[in-house]
Amino acid sequence: MSKTLTMAPLISLLTITLLTTPAISSVDSFVYGGCSQIKYTPGSPYESNVNSLLTSLVNSATFNVYNNFTIKSPTSQDTLYGLFQCRGDLSNGDCASCVACAVSQLGTLCLDSSGGALQLDGCFVKYDNTTFLGVEDKTEVLKKCGPLIAYDSDELNRRDGVLDYLGTSEGSYKPFRVGGSGDVSAMAQCVQDLSASECQDCLSEVVGRLKTYCGAAASGDLYLAKCYVRFSKAGAHSYGGNAVDYHDHDDDDDDDDEVQKTLAILVGLIAAVALLILLLTFLRKAWGHGECKLLVYLSLHIYSSLYCDPCTW
Ligand SMILES: *[C@@H]1O[C@H](CO)[C@@H](O)[C@H](O)[C@H]1NC(C)=O
Ligand SMILES: *[C@@H]1O[C@H](CO)[C@@H](O)[C@H](O)[C@H]1NC(C)=O
Known about the structure:
The protein is of the alpha+beta class. It folds into three domains: 2-13 and 257-307; 36-128, Gnk2 domain, C-X8-C-X2-C motif (Killer Toxin P4, Chain A, 2-Layer Sandwich), CATH 3.30.430; 140-254, Killer Toxin P4, Chain A (2-Layer Sandwich), CATH 3.30.430. It is 46% helix and 20% strand. The protein is built from eight helices and ten strands. The chain has helices at 2-27, 45-60, 92-109, 153-166, 196-213, 243-246, 256-287, 291-307, and strands spanning 30-35, 66-71, 80-86, 116-120, 123-128, 140-145, 176-181, 184-190, 219-224, 227-233. The strands form two sheets. The chain has a five-stranded antiparallel sheet with strand order 1-4-5-3-2, covered by helices on one side. Strands 6-9-10-8-7 form a five-stranded antiparallel sheet, covered by helices on one side. A hairpin with a 2-residue loop joins strand 9 and strand 10. The chain is globular. The two termini are 37 Å apart. Residues 38, 40, 46, 76-77, 114, 129-130 line the site of one 2-acetamido-2-deoxy-beta-D-glucopyranose.
């Protein structure tokens, strides 16, 4: 009987893990990154400005979905500008961990670069010593179309309708937009240093280009420097575990990727449980009562080694 009692916290911990993990890994998945060619001198004031700017971004992401910072320097070439933008549907906690993840990846990707930008699934981070804050920029950064599929004309109209809806102003400032119809879902996000009209202009431009580029594709993503739009037909491609957050499709024909991911998680969990039971049995004999703390420690350890790559700290 006491054995069952001991296992209870483990089971609940593993259940929580199972339920929350896919969302975490999806928010942190890499979309694109780029660095300025110019390098600063390591150990220079520029470096300490970069560090303090990036730290400010990480701290601020605990309370905001968007913020900008300027680190002033006596010499104008050392003055730094930076911002982060989280996807509008993220919780404070997910936003903060996404920005922390992006900043840590930027540090590796753009080592000693005077500027850099990184887009993860859930957030965007950029810093540079040229002013880009509040500047509309429709440079194409990334476009990705899914496989071509046989849309009938109804479906195609519905898809275009959803995209048009995202590209249309409703009067109020909406930097994050979602839409869906049938099994088509889509989302749009502006970087909030843009004004309402600039955001509107950027999104309607992306929608136009996306319809051209990814005509009959099952999914499409188009990222400009300051805004992006993504769409997908259910079963063809998914945004990951968070997809349910912005489209409610009742049919459950999940992505192969999702199924594989879930399978991998399940296999991992079963292995972890088996291992823990073995360990427990052993420890029970060896130590008697210390197993509970150890159990929690081990579970967390396995949790982080399984799921927190590449952003573990
Ligand atoms: C940005 O910083 C780099 C490295 O210190 C410098 O060479 C460049 O002139 C700076 N650019 C501006 C616009 O200040
Ligand atoms: C930058 O941040 C300041 C202070 O939070 C805010 O007043 C300003 O509007 C922001 N600028 C842009 C371009 O977002």
